């Protein structure tokens, strides 16, 4: 499922999560979509991780992303992961 999420930084800048956010295959760009600050993808890992239902994700930051953008990206990833886990608990 594809969803776009908006992120507003304390200084007023807006970022967008574009792609399959809850499947962890998306990018985080400026609101206009011109600059990609980070790319996120699921890393399947090894068989043991798969069998134990452990998930790993790969986050690649653009070197030009400043500290505030990086902190916002990490915070967003944590929030998305918590939302996914909550949705799984209520669905199951």
Describe the structure.
It is built from two helices and five strands; from the N terminus they run ββββαβα. The protein is an alpha+beta fold and 92 residues long. The chain has one domain. Strands 1-2-3-4-5 form a five-stranded antiparallel beta sheet, covered by helices on one side. The chain is globular. It starts with a strand and ends with a helix. The mean pLDDT is 84.
Helicity, in percent? Answer: 25-40%
The spatial strand order of the largest sheet comes to 1-2-3-4-5
Spans where pLDDT lies below 50 across 5 or more residues: none
What structural class results from the helix and strand content? alpha+beta
Percentage of residues in strands: 25-35%
Topology:
Blueprint: E1 5-8, E2 14-20, E3 25-30, E4 36-43, H1 47-51, E5 56-61, H2 67-91
InterPro entries: Tubby-like_C
Give a summary of the structure in a few sentences.
This protein has 92 residues and is an alpha+beta fold. It contains two helices and five strands.
Question: Which descriptors apply to this entry?
Answer:
92 residues; alpha+beta; five-stranded antiparallel sheet; Tubby-like_C
